[in-house]
Specification:
By secondary structure, the protein is α+β, with helices and mostly antiparallel strands. It has 16 helices and 14 strands. The strands form four sheets. A six-stranded mixed sheet has the order 2-1-10-11-7-6, with no helix packed on it. Strands 5-8-9-12 form a four-stranded mixed sheet.
């Protein structure tokens, strides 16, 4: 099957009938029609349609010759890498970069695993051939994925391994059928509305029974997705369309068939695939490509506010905009450098330079919340005085259109813009977006440590030594 359309995505997700719980009740019927999911699922379907409407969104499969999504492409050159970026940013432009778990993210993760099989050579309880075959199966079927790897926050101390009551999803049995998993995992964004869920452990996993990598269909028996409250409301321009549901994943003695088990009970192999393979550079490249679009979107909203109320002549406003411009252009430059200073490995895979990408992601953790603060400062009271669509359609609509007018714009146009800015920076959806970017790809302190540890200071020290001599 070639790259799918939005209709095919909707058909598959509705047919799954996954075990999804929302506000104390299991979701029944077509999940694409449920108010908490309808807007986001429709937006995701539109992404799949774009694959057939925009050039360079697909490539020919090396296996079947069919058109497959570029997000599954393992780059063999800088041009391939830039083709991936173009596709990622095309999708991100559709949603302002607000869908952090659009399909290209996990497709990139799976491609990174398939391109890193050499790190599993000689490791016990690993199945690299199965992982490669599964990647090809997902690519040819254009599968959608959620994932989960975060353990519940019951005890994050260094002595947590001594806990007798373990809440983390773990291997409780092995049978002829496969692994038996019981426990919980956190934060599967888009949980229950994708074909599959990839479950894996991250470096730092201390127990073998919590060390694994596998993928199973979202409707697997014993698998439950428990949702947070939806942020999607009919009068919100962004959250109504792009609120990606976050879920807790419960494993009630879920059987993972052996053909879907890629690693188990091997702490070192899990860590190696993450740290020594292509996972970090590939996923960072996808993340930064999207974040550039998101930063530009925030910049555009800020400038639109300035023009709406005609405050561009003020120095403090120009200073705030310069701050945002510096951030946007810095992100672009770091992404460009990562592509240009990439390397071709012994297997012919082109790997972007991870250091500029680390710097970009770490900087965005600080920069994006600052952008939201600037939007609030520019909008000020206008971010609060937001009558509804019904108000403007009522008998007082003409008064509101006059008294809330902007510079050469009517009140309704002004309120539409300010409601968008509010939804981006102040609503539940906006607050979730800010928190999401604060911790994207990990704790900011740990990311800063990674930047420090991977940066070579040798040439800088030699320069100092030359002066001392």
């Amino acid at each position: 099957m070639p790259a799918i359309t939005g209709d095919e995505y909707l058909r598959r997700i509705n047919a799954l009938n996954s075990n999804v719980w929302y506000e104390g009740q299991r979701v029944t019927g077509k999940i694409s029609e449920h108010p908490a999911f309808a807007g986001m699922i429709k937006s995701q379907a539109a992404l799949y349609d774009l694959q057939h409407q925009v050039k360079n969104m697909t490539v020919r499969s090396e296996k079947t010759g069919e058109a497959v999504g570029v997000s599954y492409l393992i780059p063999r050159s800088m041009e391939d890498l830039q083709k991936r970026k173009g596709m990622i940013q095309e999708w991100a432009s559709f949603n302002g970069g607000l869908m952090g778990r659009s399909p290209d993210y996990m497709n990139t993760v799976l491609a990174s695993f398939a391109a890193s099989l050499e790190v599993l050579k000689g490791e016990k309880k690993t199945f690299p051939k199965k992982l490669r075959s599964f990647y090809e199966y997902a690519r040819e079927g254009d599968l959608s994925f959620t994932h989960t790897f975060i353990s519940p926050q019951s005890n994050r101390s260094k002595l947590s391994v001594l806990d007798e009551e373990v809440t983390n999803a773990r291997i409780v049995n092995k049978s002829d059928e496969g692994l038996v998993i019981k426990g919980a995992k956190l934060l599967a964004t888009q949980g229950g509305i994708t074909d599959e869920i990839i479950v894996y452990s991250t470096p730092g996993t201390a127990e073998e029974d919590q060390s694994y990598l596998f993928s199973i269909p979202s409707d697997t028996k014993g698998l439950k997705f428990v949702c947070r409250r939806s942020f999607a409301h009919s009068d919100t321009p962004l959250s109504s369309r792009f609120d990606e549901m976050d879920t807790i994943v419960l494993f009630d003695e879920v059987i993972v068939p052996w053909d879907r088990v890629f690693i188990y009970e091997n702490i070192r192999a899990v860590a190696s695939l993450y740290q020594d393979g292509k996972f970090i550079p590939f996923t960072l490249h996808q993340i930064v490509s999207r974040q550039v679009i998101k930063a530009e979107f925030a910049l555009g909203v800020a400038q639109s506010i300035i023009e709406m109320i005609n405050v561009g002549e003020y120095e403090h406003v120009q200073g705030k905009m310069a701050e945002m411009i510096r951030g946007v252009e810095s992100m672009k430059a770091l992404l460009f450098k990562a592509e240009g200073t990439g390397t071709l490995d012994e297997n012919g895979v082109y790997i972007p330079d991870p250091l500029p990408l680390y710097v970009a992601v770490n900087e965005f953790q600080r920069f994006y919340p600052r952008c939201m603060e600037i939007l609030q400062q520019l909008g000020a009271s206008g971010m609060v005085t937001l009558p509804s669509e019904r108000d403007f359609s009522s008998e007082i609509g003409s008064d509101l259109n006059f008294y809330l007018k902007g510079y050469e714009k009517g009140g309704k146009e002004k309120v539409e813009l300010f409601r968008l800015a509010w939804d981006l920076s102040m609503s539940e959806f906006g607050s979730r977006q800010t928190l999401y970017e604060r911790f994207f790809f990990g704790d900011p302190v740990r990311l800063a440590q990674a930047v420090y540890k991977t940066y070579s200071t040798e040439s800088a020290i030699q320069r100092v030594n030359r002066f001392l001599e």
